[in-house]
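Before relying on records like the one below, remember that each one covers exactly one chain. Contacts with other chains, cofactors or solvent are not represented anywhere in the record.
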Amino acid sequence: MRSFFLGLFMLPSFCFANELKEVPSIYINPKLEKVFWEHPSIISNGYVVVNDLKKANYFFDHIPPDANFDSQDIIIFAWSGSTDDCIDYSAEEATYHFVYKKGMTQELTKHIKLFVMDKNDNWLYHRVLE
C-alpha cells in the first residue's frame, strides 16, 4: 500500500508553484480610484499586473499580506458592467484561464477582482465580446 501512494507522488503532472489566491479589493487605495480607472492598462486590457513594490504602492492603500513580489504577482481585473458580471477562473494544463462572464441585469456598477499568483504561472484572460 505504501508503494502505491509513493508512486502517485512521483508521477509527472502539470502543477502550479502556488495556489491562486483571491484577495479582497479593500486594498485598492480609495484616494486613487479615479486615477486607477483611467490607467491605460485598465482601459485597454481590463487588467493590470502588479509585479513590484513600486507599482503596488501606486495602486494599494496597504499591500495585501498575501503578496510577496519576489515570487508573486497580483493581477487586478477591473471593469464596469452589470451587477451580475464576474470573473471566473479554471486551471487547465498548467495555465489559469480567467473568463469574464457578463451578467443579465441592466444595473451598472464597477467591479474589481484581485488575484495573487506565482510569477512563473501561466495565465490567459478571455473576454466575452458581443
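The beta strands are 21-23, 47-50, 72-82, 86-92, 95-101, 108-118, 122-126.
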